[in-house]
Amino acid sequence: MLKIQKYAAIDIGSNAVRLLISNIIEQGDAPVVFKKNSLVRVPIRLGADVFLKGEISEYNQERMLDTMKAFSLLIKSHGVVRYKACATSAMREASNSSSLIKKILKTSGISIDVIEGEEEATIIAATDLQSFIDPDKTYLYVDVGGGSTEFSVIHNGDKKISKSFKIGTVRLLNDIVKNETWLELEQWIKGNTSQYDKIELIGSGGNINKIFKISGKTIGKPLTYFYLTSYYKMLQNYSYEERITELNLNQDRADVIIPATRIYLSAMKWSGAKDIYVPKIGLSDGIIKSMYFETVSSVTV
User: Fold this and answer.
1) Coil, strand, or helix at residue 218?
2) pLDDT at site 157
3) For residue 299, is pLDDT > 60?
4) Rounded to the nearest 10 degrees, how much is the dihedral formed by the CA atoms of 169, 173, 174, 177?
5) What are the distances in angstroms from CA 212 to CA 140, 144, 276?
6) CA 19, CA 10: separation in Å to the nearest integer?
């Protein structure tokens, strides 16, 4: 018997806020299917406030309230049966995040969980990668965000280790990532990948998704280190305005795409990976799946 329900995930990131609505399709003994129904992205860029001034500005607080009210209405109109809202790096560090969360709950009815970096990495790594990965290979999974980047080593289909680093696109744009943090990341990647003969990258995040789309590659085919290096150099030959007008990038993508590419290239260099796979998944997908499997396990128990 066919059963379709809608779940929603809200990802409150340092660069953008996203609402993902997915259809959960169950049919007898067949594996459950997660099908994206709708994705709304609002580039509020909370990190630009928080990483420089320690708090969210009045202007962006108002934008957050409006966005959450809109998301609440969309969740209702779609007939969503379950949702979860998770906030990451910027909301973790903002001195006024708790008061904003209370306002959002009061005005929109949306309850927000502020999750730690390690939990964020775990949720992302828990996303069903089986259709994207070869169980006999080793991967470094890199999810680049505005405030932090989450790394996971996956060997023979199992996650071995995850860690979150405060290296994100908005932080890099504002030149507030310390050299020691880069060094710590380099040591972590080398220390956790050197024992494997060959490693490949899995990249997630809006910037690598955009690069993959531009490349014209078919889903399942990787981008090479050479291609990404060439693209990185090409981007730097254009001004911010030219990236918008000539490369057709959105204004909130045209600046962060360069530091994002730098993070992926650094991860490839330090792990020795020659290829990066781009399955177009991220935190919001992980939230949807974790909600579903929590429901299933509680029913089973």
Assistant:
1) coil
2) 86
3) no
4) 50
5) 18, 14, 10
6) 5
Does the pLDDT at position 298 exceed 80? no
Tell me the pLDDT tens digit for each residue of 194-231: 999 999 999 999 999 999 999 999 988 999 999 999 99
Question: According to DSSP H, which parts of 54-142 are helical?
Answer: 58-78, 89-93, 97-108, 117-125
- Residue 113 identity: D
**Over the chain, what is the mean pLDDT?**
93
Q: What is the predicted pLDDT for the residue at 301?
A: 32
Element at 17 (helix H, strand E): strand 17-27
The C-alpha atoms of residue 272 and residue 189 are separated, in whole angstroms, by 10
What's the token pair of residue 30?
A: 């067949």
What are the structure tokens assigned to 62, written together? 């108002």
Count of all residues that appear for the chain in the document: 301
Q: 3-state DSSP call for residue 87?
A: strand
Mean pLDDT of 42-70: 97
Q: How do 33-42 and 17-27 pair as beta strands?
A: antiparallel
pLDDT at 126: 67
Encoded tokens for 249:
């990038």
Q: How many Cα neighbours within 13 Å face the side chain of 245?
A: 5
Q: Which two tokens stand for residue 184?
A: 């710590």
- Only one residue has tokens 């169980």, namely 135
